[in-house]
Amino acid sequence: MKYRTVAELVALARQHGKTIGEVVLEQEVQAGGRTREEVFSNMEKSLLVMEQAVEKGMNEVVLSRSGLTGGDARRLREYAQRGRSLCQGVVLDAVNYALATSEVNASMGLIVATPTAGSSGVLPGSILAAGRHLGSGREQMVYALFNAGGIGFVIANNATISGAAGGCQAEIGAAAAMAASAVAELAGGSAEQCAHAAAIALKNLLGLVCDPVAGLVEVPCVKRNSMGAAVSIVAADMALAGITSVIPCDEVIEAMYKIGTMLPSCLRETSLAGLATTPTGQELNQRINKKDQE
Amino acid sequence: MRYNSIFDIIGPIMVGPSSSHTAGAARIGKTARDIFGRQPTKAEITLYGSFAQTYRGHGTDLALVGGILDLHADDENIVNSFQLARERGVEIVFKIIPEESDYHPNTAKVRLSDHTGSLEVVGISLGGGKITITEIEGFRISLSGDSPTLLVFHHDRYGAVARVAQVLACNEINIGHMEVARKSKGDQALMVIETDQDLTDEIIKDVKQIDHVYSVALLTT
């Protein structure tokens, strides 16, 4: 790949008069030895899986194996349909779709890890909601996924996308940055605006710890996915308005990584602190994980 | 660069809930099955570390069994794999070792058997659905399964490696990575050969006919 940083990605896009999504696709073709059509259709397949997961989560009550999560996406949809919600529109839809995807994930349904399974709700939630409201074509949506992939690629290589290594900021934080950039591109924003959107979204989630109850990708992960989607849409809107991130995106990514290394391991996916060790968290852990060892 | 493709970030397509504890587990099971080369009648699975502590909620057990039944990590039937195993007459035995051990936190040991033989594979899940097979039949190796991989079980004799390489060369197959492990000098040995091109049945047949080679398995991606 010819880019290692978000700044390089933006420069490539500017230099060739292309979107970040187009640059990322071309770089993947050059690096991977596959044709443009193959690479594009691979990504289109991911879009289809995302749509199916949202569809399923919105219309069915999908319960997880532990019984901790499921049914909230449909609950939110029914509430939204009554037309009296506070953030009706793209934001609420993004939240709803993200919730749906994360519930499907928790129920062992089919999803796309973006960048991880635990954070798989954010990106589809945001781009499907924004795409529908903007009337984006299918091709544009696929390019938006490449855009998100490019931002995630930089974060994964220069920082981390693992909750065990960097806390939730590395998963939901990375996903929100990816989604913010993708949505900014869908809405016609420039490459620079995409980078600012990503930076603004990630900054808001810096320091977020990974403290899953009973070690499962459910509490608080499912709801954090929907909140990450909301953050990404708001961040995109701010960037599209011309608001810039004072700290450049690559520096925010580096800060995220450093914060991650400073987090004690009890707050990095070990379930030894935070929400996992609240009285309710411990009780749930006893109920779910100990029953099979009797 | 630890990630090389955009599809490491947007992907894999998988059944949830965890890329390490579900998709990775399914891949370990599937890889063991592919090396065994057929459906076993019995599978004994030992879970260590984090796999042992949280397997239930992550469906690690279902995913491993699914893989052993030849299901890919994106097969929605994984959730039904225990029932599927019963229908196909595959006996499943789990052993859970939650105590700390020398094994990597996400380790599964899979022993597959039927009336003609058995095979033991140890795999670890690295995160993001990526895995490494660290042991096959006691041979210590490192196998990612990201490229087509030829496994050649042979007797540790001079020329065996050269002859296998020769067959691949004649068929214009390039070796991307290769390692050889043996239990002791002159004993049983294993070649693990990752190739850049896909291997045909014809090539496998030729490798099988080489002196001192007693078993060959192919892992496709």
UniProtKB/TrEMBL annotation, chain A:
Residues 16-276 form the Serine dehydratase-like alpha subunit domain. Pathway: Carbohydrate biosynthesis; gluconeogenesis. Its cofactor is [4Fe-4S] cluster. The keyword Iron-sulfur applies. Keywords: 4Fe-4S, Gluconeogenesis, Iron, Iron-sulfur, Lyase, Metal-binding. Belongs to the iron-sulfur dependent L-serine dehydratase family. It catalyses: L-serine = pyruvate + NH4(+). This is L-serine dehydratase. One of its GO terms (biological process) is gluconeogenesis. It holds the Pfam family SDH_alpha. One of its GO terms (molecular function) is L-serine ammonia-lyase activity. Its EC number is 4.3.1.17. It comes from Desulforamulus putei DSM 12395.
UniProtKB/TrEMBL annotation, chain B:
SUPFAM superfamilies: ACT-like, Serine metabolism enzymes domain. The keyword Lyase applies. It catalyses: L-serine = pyruvate + NH4(+). Pathway: Carbohydrate biosynthesis; gluconeogenesis. Keywords: 4Fe-4S, Gluconeogenesis, Iron, Iron-sulfur, Lyase, Metal-binding. Residues 149-221 form the ACT domain. GO terms for biological process: gluconeogenesis. GO terms for molecular function: 4 iron, 4 sulfur cluster binding; L-serine ammonia-lyase activity; metal ion binding. Pfam families: ACT, SDH_beta. The keyword Metal-binding applies. InterPro entries: ACT-like_dom_sf (IPR045865), ACT_dom (IPR002912), ASB_dom_sf (IPR029009), Fe-S_L-Ser (IPR051318), Fe-S_L-Ser_bsu (IPR004643), Ser_deHydtase_bsu (IPR005131). It comes from the Bacteria. Its cofactor is [4Fe-4S] cluster. Transmembrane segments: none annotated. Belongs to the iron-sulfur dependent L-serine dehydratase family. PANTHER family: L-SERINE DEHYDRATASE, L-SERINE DEHYDRATASE, BETA CHAIN-RELATED. NCBIfam families: sda_beta (TIGR00719). This is L-serine deaminase.
